[in-house]
Design a protein that fits this description.
alpha+beta, Lipocalin, Glutaredoxin, nine-stranded antiparallel beta sheet, eight-stranded antiparallel β-barrel, 5 helices, 25 strands, globular, disordered N terminus
Length: about 400
């Protein structure tokens, strides 16, 4: 009887999809609705390939392609290509969308109301001309509600009202930010399936940012302020990772995504320069690092280089973790092993349980470099993605210099 009802439901949905309107082509404005009345806004473009809808989420120079878009009648389901992130929506009579954004976390599943309107091409209404030019580097301070402060460096580009760039903390960057300068105010936002941010602030001329507010996800609110500083430098001391005294080699063995055990002492890694990526499928900066490392590995593996990733996931549910990690593996065509450590990212003993030879892992991603003699040569905490400009250029230059020096040794 159950199969009959299922078949009838499928037939009805099929008829509904024949009569339902399709998602309109072109640029849309999406808004995630917070309970405090603030909206986290972003733009996306809808197109069709072989009659199937494809979405590109727009953040400054990034166009994040989303292929898993399905419509049955007036119901639209969108699964993001990374993270445990999706949209369950209903197409309205006026062509707009309403529903919710659903995101898996280390605790309970997070949901936010979502609306989207076709034909709106401005992320923020322009209004007044910009009263200041913000292009360049900025020294910022972020302060949480409990009073904890954290230094940051921002690098912005401005053309007329349009403002783009990124903000970097020692623990990682906020990826591609886009918005406007309107009068004496700035507005920036981003959405990539995990990051859902809006930044608003007042300007005191072209050299100071004041009364900044950072909205993140459904409830978080923090403050920030800053001053122009073209020589701003971000200290990485708070995310530094080192070998413990008396240690020089790692010793681990974990299953890959096909349940095959892989260890650092395997023949594949002997007499090779090995890069170990400490990551998680929940981590947006890990997405950018995976893109970089996968490309680098393909171009350089014949030089005697190997890589592997150690994944620290939200839960101990292996199937849930594998599903999320395969998104990374498939999207970036990762050829090196991704290993499940079996320890969650929130476990305070994650380092002791998996890599007891090093000090506390403080940032995802982090990177360990191993020489051809099998000994750890360098550990780097953190990563700066392509949206950060000079910081990304510096990171990739140092990464490649480290590899070159280890290949010579």
């Amino acid at each position: 009887m159950k199969s009959v009802f299922t078949l009838v439901g499928m037939i009805l949905l099929g008829f509904g999809s024949l009569n339902a309107q399709k998602l309109k082509k072109g640029v849309w404005k999406g808004s995630l609705l917070r309970e405090d009345g603030q909206h986290i806004v972003f733009l996306f473009d809808v197109s069709y390939k072989q009659q199937q809808p494809v979405i590109h989420i727009i953040n400054a120079d990034e166009r994040l392609e989303v292929k898993q878009v399905s419509q049955k009648g007036d119901s639209v389901f969108i699964e993001m290509p990374f993270f445990e992130s999706s949209f369950a929506l209903q197409l309205q009579k006026d062509g707009s969308l309403k529903g919710k954004w659903i995101k898996g976390t280390s605790r309970k599943t997070q949901e936010m109301p979502f609306v989207a309107t076709p034909g709106v091409t401005e992320r923020f209404p322009k209004g007044q001309p910009a009263a200041a030019k913000l292009g360049g580097k900025w020294e910022l301070t972020f302060t949480s509600k409990n009073g904890n402060s954290e230094p940051a460096v921002a690098e912005f580009q401005q053309k007329g009202n349009k403002l783009t760039g990124s903000i970097s903390l020692a623990s990682g960057d906020y990826r591609y930010l886009e918005g406007i300068v309107k009068g004496d105010s700035l507005f920036l936002s981003t959405f990539d399936g995990s990051h859902a941010y809006v930044f608003k602030a007042k300007l005191a001329g072209s050299d100071r940012i004041e009364s900044g507010v950072h909205y993140s996800g459904p409830v978080y609110t923090g403050n920030f302020s800053g001053k122009r500083n073209e020589n701003a430098v971000l200290s990485m001391d708070e995310v530094a990772v080192k070998l413990k005294p008396g240690e020089d080699k790692l010793n681990f063995r974990f299953p890959d995504l096909d349940d095959k055990l892989v260890g650092i002492d395997d023949a594949r890694f002997r007499n090779k320069v090995v890069v170990i990526q400490i990551m998680g499928s929940w981590c947006p900066n890990c997405m950018d690092e995976t893109a970089y490392l996968s490309d680098f590995y393909k171009k350089n593996k014949e030089r005697g280089i190997e890589m592997l990733a150690l994944a620290y996931e939200y839960s101990l549910d292996n199937e849930r973790s594998k599903k999320s990690l395969r998104k990374f593996q498939q999207r970036f065509n990762v050829d090196y092993p991704i290993l499940l450590t079996g320890v969650t990212s929130s476990d305070t003993l994650r380092t002791e349980k998996t890599l007891p030879q090093i000090t506390q892992i403080k940032s995802f991603p982090s990177t360990i470099f191993i020489g051809k003699d099998g000994k750890v040569k360098k550990v780097h905490g953190g990563f700066f993605g392509p949206a950060t400009g000079d910081l990304y250029t510096q990171y990739t230059r140092e990464f490649e210099e480290t590899i070159d020096s280890l290949l010579v040794d």
